[in-house]
Every structure is written in C-alpha cells, then in structure tokens.
C-alpha cells in the first residue's frame, strides 16, 4: 500500500526515516520502512505541542495541493491528519468551520455527510456540531433525505453494497413512543421513510435509539443514521474508541481521517496511539480498491 505524506520534513520527528519524492508515483519505489515525503515548505519549524500561526497558511496550501492530486487521479484517496481550527482562523483568516467544509468547497459540493466507521459499526450523525437545543430545528425532512441519499450512494460506490441496509434512529426517546415523547417520528419521519422505501431504499425505522446498537441489533443494518452528534458517536466510541475512522461522504473524491483531535498535550512525547490513523489509511486504500480507477494506487 504505497502512500506519501505532504508537508515540511522539518515537522517530522528527529530520526524519522524519510525519502523525499518529486512526484507521487515515486512512492512505489522508496526503500521499505521509509516514509515518502512530497515536500511542501512551511515558514516556520515546529515545536511539538505549540502551534505556530505562521504555519496556518501552509496547512491550507497542503490541503489544496492534496485535493488537486486526488481530483486529477494522480492519487487515489486523501487521508487528512487532525488540524486545530482556531490556529487556522487566527493565522490565516480561515473562513470554514473545519477542513471538512473546506474540502467540500474544493470539491464543489454543497452538502457532505460525516460517517464514523469501525469493523463493528458505521454511524452517520445528520446534524453535527451544534447545540442540542438547536437539533429539533436543524433536523429537517430535507436534511434527513439528503443524508440518506448521500450515504446510500457512497456505500454502493466505496463498499460495494448493492442495496445498503440503513437504520434510521428516532429523534426522541423510544422513537417518540407513539407521540408520548415527541411527534417528529409520527409527523414526518415515518412518511419520509415510507416514500424512500418505494424508491427502492432499504430503510428501517424510525428505531428506538436505546435498543439499536447492541450486538444483535447491529447485524440487521449496514449503517445507522442518527439525528444528532452524541446519538451517533457515543456508540461507536464505546465499541472501538481507538480504531474509529472519520469518512466524508458526498465528496467527488475519497477522504478519510482519524477520529481524534490534535492532542497538543501529548505531542512529542512518543505516547500517541496511532491506531486510528492506521485504520484511516487502510480504509482509504480499501475504498479506492472498490472504485473503478485504481491504477495509480497512492493515498
């Protein structure tokens, strides 16, 4: 699985075995045990655990360069490392909530879907980083329908699931319990699900969120679409905290990322767990293998 890293070699740990390349194709021929580095110079060196605003623009440039490579077919997939959003905003007036939204902009799409995946579970939060009090307003029929369509399309494209089985979690406890604990499931969710079933979508729900994530229940679906952030992320982080992968669905290219943040507090101490990054790289490769054009084979 040849892959390469884009960045400033000065930012890698001392003693790292690197091999600088001029083009992504050269990653196929570097010595075993070396990291292929497509060099991109940053203004300043790095002090582990201490962000430098001078390098903010460089981070944005690397993302732009990476997207150009995957969109041109020079690379097969993009795996992004965590970023500190505040550093980008303060350092280069970054106008996006995070790099996912920036990647959507670069890909020319208005809406993307965040999926968290591990071997035992895939989950999609329809609403993401908003206050819980805002969820009932943001969680609309239009949003849920778009989320279902994008999720189903990419599960077919990248996982080879001809008819993905999609579980829809209710917004309310016990999926509203017949209206006793909320009416969204009755007033519009059930009707939307029924309409999309007639189009051929394999949907089940609205399901009671508290009974759909145990081992037996997970055997009946390929992905769970949830109403809000914690409803989706608590189950997967409980099942596989270290090995979860963040996948952005709806982009015109493959993008994965580790399911964790920058961890400045342990940077440079040699104790970070690489499990999620390794899983993200592997998943990007597997997704690329499922698509038609895998001739370049770089991540």
Automatic annotation (TrEMBL):
Keywords from the UniProt entry: Metal-binding, NAD, Oxidoreductase
Transmembrane segment boundaries: none
Metal-binding recorded as keyword: yes
Annotated InterPro entries: PdxA_fam
Pfam family, one: PdxA
Domain of life: Bacteria
UniProt key word Zinc-finger: no
PANTHER family: 4-HYDROXYTHREONINE-4-PHOSPHATE DEHYDROGENASE, D-THREONATE 4-PHOSPHATE DEHYDROGENASE
Protein name: 4-hydroxythreonine-4-phosphate dehydrogenase PdxA
């Amino acid at each position: 699985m040849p892959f390469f890293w884009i960045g400033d070699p000065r930012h890698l740990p001392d003693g790292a075995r690197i091999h600088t390349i001029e083009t992504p194709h050269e990653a196929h021929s570097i010595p075993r045990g070396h990291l292929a580095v497509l060099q991109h110079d940053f203004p300043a060196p790095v002090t582990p655990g201490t962000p430098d605003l001078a390098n903010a623009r460089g981070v944005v440039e690397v993302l732009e360069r990476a997207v150009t490579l995957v969109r041109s077919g020079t690379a097969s997939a993009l795996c992004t490392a965590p970023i500190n959003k505040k550093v980008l905003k303060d350092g280069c007036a970054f106008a996006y909530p995070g790099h996912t939204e920036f990647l959507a902009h670069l890909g020319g799409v208005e809406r993307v879907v965040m999926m968290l995946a591990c071997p035992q579970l895939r989950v999609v939060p329809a609403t993401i980083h908003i206050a819980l009090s805002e969820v009932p307003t943001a969680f609309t029929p239009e949003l849920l329908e778009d989320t279902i369509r994008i999720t189903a399309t990419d599960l077919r494209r990248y996982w080879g699931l001809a008819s993905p089985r999609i579980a829809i979690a209710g917004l309310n406890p016990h999926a509203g319990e017949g209206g006793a604990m909320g009416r969204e499931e009755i007033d519009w969710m059930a009707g939307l699900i029924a309409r999309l079933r007639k189009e051929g979508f394999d949907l089940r729900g609205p399901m009671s969120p508290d009974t759909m994530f145990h081992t037996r229940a997970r055997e009946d679906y390929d992905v769970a679409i949830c109403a809000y952030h914690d409803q989706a992320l608590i189950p997967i982080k409980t099942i596989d905290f270290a090995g979860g992968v963040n996948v952005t669905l709806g982009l015109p290219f493959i993008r994965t990322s580790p399911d964790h943040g920058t961890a400045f507090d342990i940077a440079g101490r040699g104790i970070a767990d690489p499990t999620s990054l390794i899983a993200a790289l592997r998943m990007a490769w597997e997704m690329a293998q499922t698509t038609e054009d895998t001739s370049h084979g770089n991540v």
